[in-house]
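Lines hold sequence, tokenised fold; shown next:
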Amino acid sequence: MGDDGDHGSLQLDVTCPMMRLLSRSLSVYFHLQFFTGYGESLLDYDGSSSVLRVGIALYR
């Protein structure tokens, strides 16, 4: 089962600067993440899933 090539995954992360805080020492970024495939978590390692997440990041 470990040799099967049909259980892959893809993760795409995109960040975009929103603003600078504390005189350029800290930046805030808009974060968009897309995952599709197998193995996103150990609980669902044998099931395929597709997930889109949106968030805020303090660094990239």
